[in-house]
Design goal:
Number of domains: 4
Protein name: AAA family ATPase
Bound molecules: adenosine-5'-triphosphate
Keywords: ATP-binding, Helicase, Hydrolase, Nucleotide-binding
Radius of gyration: 31 Å
CATH class of the largest domain: Alpha Beta
CATH topology of the largest domain: Rossmann fold
Structural class: alpha/beta
Strand content: 15-25%
Number of helices: 29
CATH architecture of the largest domain: 3-Layer(aba) Sandwich
InterPro entries: DNA_helicase_UvrD/REP, P-loop_NTPase, UvrD-like_ATP-bd
Strand order of the largest sheet: 1-7-6-2-3-5-4
Domain UvrD-like helicase ATP-binding: 192-533
Binding site for ATP: 213-220
Helix content: 40-55%
Length: 679
């Protein structure tokens, strides 16, 4: 079996040659940057074009920066020569392209003055073999070389012969990368993307992909790399249409915020559902939130909006000078009827004004006048037309409609028809209605309803691609809201059914895709965990039969023997002091109600408390259990699991999330009995 060869078993002259290539590539990148800096925006015709061109040039210069600590290339492919192709009787090697036989794969393209490619972007089609080639399908590659770095220095490499059949052993460089202690924000994984992850990253722009994966299988990493891949492959289209990453909260966004810039992509919006739909936080009972999150609300809202249209009983009288022009009531009724249901509410209103004005113009022409189009606009804006439109098709805001719906039982009943039961309607109505829509306090669930109404009034613009993380936590109505934002594009949907902690957490990805409006989306699974040691993952997986019985137990790449410690009556301070003697970040995850207490217990040690909007970095953090989702720490100390479970209806799922944040060690401290599943 051909194994890996890792320097220093390899002759040092080979290492020296690779270092020489690195240094040549760095020089070439410097020259490219110098050239970009020398370009002037003066050529642009006017001031505005000049500013646009200058900003593009600035971006190009920034993208060509050489970060000394970041490897410029991390892989090399030696591709089959003409003779090797001819000798390959089994037809496993593919004929090549115009590129050199040896290519280096890195974060960006680098070429010398003569346009010789020194480094090829990892997203280019030819780089695919770096991630996908195997002895059974070498994809034209004879040998794959992976490079190891310390800081920016190339210190090691590892060869994988691909043209000799057999199997490859585990990659030491991959293992080292995964074991590297975590400090600060999330890193890119561009050097070690695995074949199944690469399939997702490189799926077509038109394809919506939905990834189910156990904790730490790289879903977030894959979503971010897919965004970078799509931006590279469809630069122009997506620069226009836009790409957006939607995550659960700001602390999570801050954690992932450096990945795309490190990959050279700075123009991607990273946001939360709350930021997108409105940061409302009025408290609400879970069952009310769940009722409001149900997709049946879409029909109710649609009816509620259109119920505001009043059957016209009067016609229009428009006076010009001594003349009066009339549009009869039945004509107005016909106009309203023909517009209703064929346009959105807002444009329908504008169209009604125009149709009324048009009819007035017809009357004027019948009288012998010859008014032009400007007269039609003036009539449409005139007082009598405005008054009639307002009385028949009133101007509305989403808040007005929702306020009425949640405070007026008869109106709710009329809008709900048989779509909501009596009990559901009672659940929805405010127990103490707010005086006016202006003073109403909206909840998280209301935000999605307001957004639905806003779209029924005016169309929401669509982006080119949306990456939605922790999607299992979104309600059907929130999914509809996100679906509107990728209506003309596609999405990458990431999540884990076992980590659903909201009152409306989904149990099926097919249903998520349906509510997102991306039914043709493909559901796929990542099964190998890169974060959590096996011992810890097996411990946490005892909760799975209770929270997601249909999911298979997660697998971990890393055995992590001795990584788990469960201590009855153990002290936080002592556990933290122990962790501080080791390398890497420390997360003390506690029931939300104990944040203050635990922070005081640690008063003697420099630490920070993670809040929903936190962006600060600290080696030692106290984290409320409800904010731990998506994050990871080298050493995790979980305090009082049974309180975490008791704090919310889906507390066991919350505990599963909390127990799966550890990269190196997990210490569980409890004074109360552990939940039965863990006991
Ligand atoms: N191919 C890879 N090479 C190296 N590291 C990887 C790879 N894939 C994932 N990782 C690392 O594993 C860790 C977990 O990845 P990530 O946060 O993307 O997982 P996740 O599936 O989103 O987890 P969760 O469900 O808990 O949010 C991260 O540190 C990530 O960098």
């Amino acid at each position: 079996m051909p194994g890996h060869q890792l320097a220093p078993d390899i002759p040092t002259d080979v290492l020296a040659a690779e270092r020489a290539h690195l240094s040549e590539s760095r020089d070439a990148l410097r020259a490219m940057r110098k050239h970009a800096q020398s370009l002037s925006s003066d050529a642009a015709g006017d001031w505005v074009s000049q500013q646009i061109l200058q900003s593009l040039l600035d971006q190009r210069v920034a993208a060509l920066a050489d970060h000394p600590d970041t490897p410029l290339f991390f892989g090399r492919l030696d591709r089959a020569t003409e003779e090797e192709l001819a000798d390959d009787l089994e037809g496993r090697l593919e004929a090549g392209d115009e590129l050199p036989a040896t290519i280096y794969v890195g974060r960006r393209h680098v070429h010398d003055g003569g346009s010789r490619a020194l480094v090829i972007d990892w997203r280019a089609p030819v780089s695919r073999a770096f991630y996908q080639a195997s002895p059974s399908d070498p994809m034209g590659v004879v040998r794959r070389r992976r490079f190891g770095y310390q800081g920016g220095d190339l210190t090691a490499f590892e060869d994988e012969p691909l043209a000799e059949g057999g199997e490859l052993g585990p990659s030491k460089i991959l293992t080292q990368e995964i074991e590297r202690p975590r400090t600060g924000p999330m890193r890119d994984i561009v050097a070690t993307i695995q074949p199944d992850q690469d399939e997702i990253v490189r799926s077509a722009l038109t394809q919506t992909v939905c990834v189910q994966g156990a904790p730490g299988t790289g879903k977030t990493a894959v979503g971010l790399h897919r965004a970078a891949y799509l931006l590279f492959t469809h630069r122009e289209k997506l620069a226009r249409a836009g790409v957006m990453i939607v995550g659960p909260n700001k602390a999570f966004l801050s954690y992932i915020s450096s990945v795309l810039p490190a990959l050279g992509e700075v123009k991607v919006d990273q946001t939360t559902v709350a930021e997108l739909l409105g940061s409302y936080d009025a408290p609400e009972r879970p069952e009310v939130a769940a009722a409001k999150g149900d997709a049946r609300m879409a029909k109710v809202l649609e009816r509620a909006l259109w119920l505001h249209i009043v059957k016209p009983t009067e016609g229009l009288v428009y006076t010009k000078g001594v003349h009066r022009f009339r549009v009869a009531d039945y004509e107005v009724r016909e106009m309203v009827a023909s517009l209703r249901g064929t346009t959105r509410y807002g444009p329908g209103r504008a169209a009604l004004a125009q149709r009324l004005a048009h009819q007035v113009l017809v009357r004027m022409e019948q009288r012998g006048d010859s008014p032009d189009d400007r007269v039609q606009d003036a009539v449409a804006r005139s007082k009598p037309v405005k008054q009639l439109v307002e009385s028949v098709w009133p101007k509305l805001t989403p808040a007005q409609v929702l306020h009425r719906l949640l405070s007026d039982p008869d109106f709710l009943a009329a809008a709900a028809r048989s779509d909501l039961s009596q009990e559901e309607q009672e659940l929805l109505l405010w127990s103490k209605p707010h005086h006016s829509w202006k003073s109403a306090k909206w909840s998280v669930a209301d935000a999605a309803l307001l957004d639905e109404l806003a779209d029924l009034i005016e169309r929401t613009p669509s982006l080119g691609h949306l990456v939605v993380d922790e999607a299992q936590d979104l309600s059907e109505m929130q999914l509809r809201a996100l679906g509107r934002r990728c209506r003309n594009g596609s999405a990458t949907v990431l999540g884990d059914l076992a980590q659903g902690t909201t009152p409306w957490s989904t149990r099926s990805w097919k249903s998520v895709l349906r509510h997102l409006g991306q039914e043709a989306g493909e559901v796929t699974e990542l099964t190998l965990g890169f974060r959590v040691p096996r011992e810890v993952l097996d411990y946490a997986a005892q909760l799975l039969p209770s929270i997601a019985p249909d999911l298979a137990a997660p697998r971990s790449l890393r055995p992590g023997l001795g990584s788990l410690s469960v201590r009855q009556d153990g002290q936080v301070l002592e556990a933290v002091r122990e962790a501080l003697t080791r390398e890497g970040s420390i997360g003390v995850i506690v029931p939300d109600s104990l944040v203050e207490t635990v922070s005081q217990e640690l008063a003697g040690l420099p630490h920070a408390v993670l809040g929903p909007d936190s962006t600060e970095e600290h080696r030692l953090l106290v984290i409320p259990a409800t904010l731990a989702k998506g994050l990871e720490y080298d050493h995790v100390i979980v305090v009082e699991p049974s309180d975490i479970v008791a704090a919310e209806p889906r507390g066991l799922a919350r505990l599963y999330v909390v127990l799966t944040r550890a990269v190196s060690s997990l210490t569980v401290l409890h004074a109360k009995p552990l939940p039965a599943q863990l006991a």
